[in-house]
Design goal:
- Helices cover 39% and strands 20% of the residues.
- The chain contains eight helices and ten strands.
- The chain has helices at residues 13-29, 53-73, 88-97, 118-127, 173-186, 207-231, 246-253, 277-285; strands at residues 5-8, 33-38, 79-84, 101-106, 132-136, 162-165, 190-196, 237-243, 259-265, 290-295.
- A ten-stranded mixed β-sheet has the order 3-2-1-4-5-10-9-6-7-8, with helices on both faces.
- Helix 7 (246-253) packs parallel to helix 8 (277-285).
Length: 296
């Protein structure tokens, strides 16, 4: 049975943009799309209190209108929608675990309001066992493609580069698999970024130490990517090895990207909302869609 692409929906501009991106991703992958909306009140049960009628009405309307819009835009897509019971965070995690990937609208995580803002989004990112893609409001199909010869946005040009962060010392197979597959589906180049740093401060002024460390980093990255190049021979891979902090190097590398993939190490204790410093930085500052991929 095919796992669907799942998108969390709350009616906000961010979540509607995420739903549109998720629809395109589902078509690229040949998968169904499942819209999930967590109502603020129980969606089933014996309670017929009048004060619950309006919230239930709006919950159904949000789901119905989004479904209609996506059916109009993507008639070839198999689409379903579901109201799920609160709490919203747990509902989203459960739905995401059952999907191929989870897509949610991304907004300022420090702000208030919205089903997908703040702690709900962070709970999904840090607890879903599948890749989670964050999509900012305003992203369009044209933004996934390079500009045309006149510098105008269009969906008729090739896809923008997919960028992946690689830790060559501890490579994450799940992250690389997601990145290579995403690039292959788009016919896009893949930019693999490995940031290295000198192991001790005293060597900062030592040119030989820096050259040695950089050469070792290039060799390590090439070795990690070699089997993936063989598995995905049609993907053009650009290896980017730079000195510096991984988050900073990724922020620079993703400025013109169509998708950025980074890893999130699975922690034995599923408590709190720990994403790691690199994922935390790119979630807040990268403009393109960001895929957070859990790995061992």
């Amino acid at each position: 049975m095919l796992r669907p692409v799942v998108v969390g929906l709350d009616g906000s501009r961010e979540s509607l943009t995420a739903a549109d991106w998720a629809a395109r991703e589902a078509l690229r992958r040949g998968l169904p799309l499942r819209l999930v909306h967590a109502a603020e009140v129980p969606v089933t049960g014996a309670s017929d209190l009048p004060e619950l009628a309006v919230p239930r009405h709006w919950a159904r309307r949000i789901l119905r209108e989004a479904t209609e819009q996506l059916n109009d835009r993507y008639p070839e897509l198999y689409l379903s929608g579901e109201l799920v019971a609160p709490p919203a965070a747990q509902a989203l995690v459960t739905a995401g675990d059952a999907g191929e990937l989870l897509v949610i609208g991304s907004r300022a995580f420090s702000g208030l309001g919205g089903f997908l803002a703040g702690s709900v989004a962070l709970q999904a990112v840090t607890h879903v066992a599948r890749p989670v893609v964050l999509v900012r409001a305003g992203q369009t199909a044209e933004d996934e493609h390079v500009l045309d010869a006149q510098g105008r946005p269009t969906a008729d040009t090739p896809y923008r580069t997919v960028v992946v962060g690689v830790d060559a010392a501890r490579p994450a197979e799940q992250v690389l698999a997601f990145a290579f597959e995403s690039a292959a589906l788009r016919g896009a180049p893949l930019r693999a970024v490995y940031a290295w740093r000198l192991p001790f401060a005293r060597a900062a002024a030592d040119a030989f130490a820096r050259e040695t460390e950089e050469a070792a980093a290039r060799s390590a990255l090439a070795a990690v990517l070699a089997p993936w190049r063989e598995k995905f021979p049609t993907v053009e891979v650009v290896e980017l090895v730079e000195e510096g902090h991984p988050a900073q190097r990724l922020l620079c590398a993703a400025q013109d990207a169509g998708l950025l993939a980074v890893g999130r190490r699975i922690r034995p204790a599923r408590l709190g909302v720990h994403t790691g410093p690199v994922a935390h930085a790119v979630m807040h500052h990268v403009r393109c869609p960001v895929a957070i991929v859990p790995h061992d």
